[in-house]
Amino acid sequence: MTSTEAVKSVLGVIHAKRNGQTVGNDDLATVVLDYTAGRIADYQMAALLATVACTGLTHAETVALTRAYVSSGSTLNLSTQGKRVVDKHSTGGVGDKVSLFVVPVVAACGVPVAKLSGQGLDFMGGTIDKLSSISGLRMDLGTDEVVDVLTRTGMVVSGQSDDLVPGDRATYALRDVTGTVDSLPLIAASIMSKKIAIGTQGVVLDVKYGPGAVIGSVEEARELAVLMLRIGHEVGLPARAVLSDMRQPLGYAVGNSLEVAEALRALRGEWIPRYSELCETIARLMLQLGRPELDVAAATVQVKEAIASGRALAKFREWAEEQGGDVSQIDDPSTLPSAPHAATVRATHDGWVAGIDARTIGSAAARLGAGRFSYEQQIDHGAGLVLGRQVGERVQAGDVLAELYGSAENLESIVVTVASAFHVEDHEPDLEPVVSAILGGGWPDGDAEQGDESENDGSGNPSPWW
Ligand code: URA
């Protein structure tokens, strides 16, 4: 039930933003609390989000919104774990299944990981939807359960809940269906509030850019990364950021259970170009936040060893069982949900794959049933597509470019769309590296490339700079 006072306050904030005024901390906190409690209607909050998406927020307002989300629920104190607990978060991208791989890898290296994730946004899937492909796996843990699972297994993944950042949960769902997912301050507040509420002592931010991400350009990705690093600094949360290229989907699988199956293949030791590389970079940055004495080489060795030994896969299985998941699906991923119908896109001529339009692929996966177009929509966990090639790979006429999985009615029209996403040319294309920069950790220019990381002082307490 909406309330007159609450409506007045949200309209006041909308007018203030439209008139170029700065909004006070208390005003933003009130609006978030009122919306979470149902005292403001969706259409009023949607109007505010649209205003913010157009006008932006000042840095102080972004921090205030972050704090408002945090204080809409409880916060955890994980200092009792006796070790630094770390976390990672991505701004989202097509085929982004990084969390499924890096969380168990880092936990298997002895650094606890607590992760609060979200559902899919727009044309990109979300970790919660992906993991929900595993029957029984609970993604709605309360605060006590989060701590219990973490204590028992060294890792925990859950969604926002009535307890944890409910303000972000409510706003996030509304942003998804109101065209407001790509506002930098809204993304920063959404992500950083989850990281702060869960109480970790270090976070790696995977800031993605390109057509397969919400952020289009590397410049904007850098701006968002710096914004989140600054928030981290202001609240005392050590953070690193990776800028990663999403001009093509990450890995081959796009769609919930298909991505779980691909992540499990990587955990079994299969090298999946670009995906495995990005995961190993993020995992070792997380490891270094948790165990600052490790330099780049030592942390990398530990990450590789956790995968090769099977400990990371065993950790994933142990954790999934703890959260109620059916581990037989982990042992045999062919039993994960699958869609009833399939169709194939084939190359019409020989050449090299010079480009794959990641946004078209993400939208196609959503249309196949892997994503939502309205609040209430149920996703089809088995729907999506598996690419036959990545950019830079050779292809011959008749080779499979993509396998599509979905329901029969719309499959054929989506085949045409997916075919149009592939650009096959007669010369080998130049490939951009998947990681274009790593920020944070005390580099004076905030712009170190991977190879320059010998400068890491090992303190694990990144100094503020950007
Ligand atoms: N992930 C989040 O949690 N929030 C966003 O806004 C984008 C990605």
List the helices and strands and how they pair.
Blueprint lengths: L3 H15 L6 H12 L5 H14 L3 H13 L14 E5 L7 H11 L4 E5 L9 H5 L11 H11 L1 E5 L6 H11 L7 H15 L3 E8 L8 H18 L3 E7 L7 E2 L1 H12 L7 H16 L5 H13 L2 H12 L5 H4 L9 E6 L4 E6 L1 H13 L13 E4 L6 E2 L4 E7 L1 H14 E4 L9 E5 L27
Bound molecules: uracil.
Structure description:
This protein is α/β, with parallel strands linked by helices and about 475 residues long. The protein is about 45% helix and about 15% strand. It has helices at about 5-20, 25-35, 40-55, 60-70, 100-110, 125-130, 145-155, 165-175, 185-200, 220-235, 255-265, 275-290, 295-310, 310-320, 330, 360-370, 410-420, and strands at about 85-90, 115, 155-160, 200-210, 240-245, 255, 340-345, 350-355, 385, 395, 400-405, 420-425, 435-440. The longest helix is centred in the middle third of the chain and has 18 residues, at about 220-235. It starts with a helix and ends in a 27-residue tail after the last strand. Uracil (URA) binds near residues 92, 121, 187, 190 and 194.
Overview in brief:
The protein is an alpha/beta fold and 466 residues long.
Total beta strand runs = 13
Radius of gyration equals: 21 Å
* Small-molecule components bound: uracil
Determine the strand fraction and express it as a percent band.
5-15%
Helix content: 40-55%
SSE order, one letter for each helix or strand: HHHHEHEHHEHHEHEEHHHHHEEHEEEHEE
User: What can be said about the biggest beta sheet?
Assistant: 4 strands, mixed
Largest sheet strand order:
1-4-5-13
Structural class: alpha/beta
What is the approximate shape? Answer: globular
Mean pLDDT over the residues: 91
Terminus-to-terminus distance: 44 Å
Oligomeric form? single chain
Task: Report low-confidence residues grouped into runs of 5 or more.
Answer: 443-466
Number of helices: 17
